[in-house]
Write a structure and sequence with these properties.
The chain has about 230 residues and is α+β, with helices and mostly antiparallel strands. The chain has one domain: archaeoglobus fulgidus dsm 4304 fold (2-Layer Sandwich), CATH 3.30.2170. About 25% of the residues lie in helices and about 30% in strands. It contains 5 helices and 9 strands, in the order αβββαβαββββααβ. Strands 6-7-8-5-4-1-2-3-9 form a 9-stranded mixed sheet, sandwiched between helices. Strand 2 and strand 3 form a beta hairpin. The radius of gyration is 17 Å and the shape is globular. It starts with a helix and ends in a 7-residue tail after the last strand.
Length: about 230
């Protein structure tokens, strides 16, 4: 298949799957287990390393961590990064000892040109409730939120609200929150803040980011598990 034709098919698939995203709350309130996921691409992109961290909510005690490595399935194509990350992320989540009630993804959800970033893709593919937490803006426009923690501004693209720009820590750059799957934007904002006690990024994502980028991790390793029992 020609590369251009393959890209067109993936874009069409995004549009089809985007229609399946649920933007209402279908998760426990409060959640019991919250996971953070992230992916990195060592070896000049030849390898995908995904990390998943499971935490108890609301205390954010780490229950388990998992890392999975595999050959990268797709080159970097702007707007299609979720197809590159998703296989390894799903495998890392599968290595956790319990299914999370909510997954925070290092990346976009609805705040994507076709409203289908990694958080949406993961949620629709697995049925998990997911939230996109972007470090930077991918699309849309917004006013600058206030400088204090918890202040926010709406992220708008065309005539659609696609996310929220949130000041997660006073005086630092905001983060970009958007619906992934089975959660409303208001609930997503509230839960992200609850998972961000000290730093700019939510603690589950911050830990997953460190794990995915660590040179010490080996592929397919369950990196750590707390002594607390993790059962549903």
């Amino acid at each position: 298949m020609r590369a251009g034709a393959n890209v067109r098919q993936l874009i069409e698939l995004q549009r089809v799957l985007a229609a399946r995203v649920i933007e209402r709350d279908e998760l426990p309130d409060p959640p019991r287990w919250v996971a953070g996921v992230d992916a990195a691409f060592p070896d000049r992109g030849r390898t995908t390393r995904a990390a998943a961290v499971l935490m108890r909510f609301p205390g954010l005690e780490t229950v388990a961590e998992a890392v999975h490595e595999q050959a990268t399935v797709l080159p970097y194509i702007p707007g299609l990064l979720s197809f590159r990350e998703l296989p390894a992320v799903v495998e890392a989540l599968a290595r956790l000892p319990a299914l999370p009630d909510l997954v925070l993804c290092d990346g976009q959800g609805r705040a994507h040109p076709r409203r289908f970033g990694i958080a949406c893709h993961l949620g629709v593919s697995t049925g998990l409730a997911t939230i996109g937490v972007g470090k930077t803006r991918l699309c849309g426009r917004h006013a600058e939120p206030g400088t204090e923690k918890g202040e926010s501004a709406e992220l708008i693209d065309g005539d659609q609200r696609i996310g929220r720009v949130l000041r997660s820590r006073s005086g630092v750059r905001p983060i970009y929150i958007s619906v992934g799957h089975r959660v409303s934007l208001d609930t997503a904002t509230r839960l992200v803040l609850a998972c961000t006690p000290r730093f700019r990024l939510p603690e589950p994502i911050r830990r997953a980011d460190r794990l995915a980028g660590s040179r010490e991790q080996a592929g397919g390793v369950v990196a750590a598990q707390s002594s607390s029992r993790c059962s549903r």
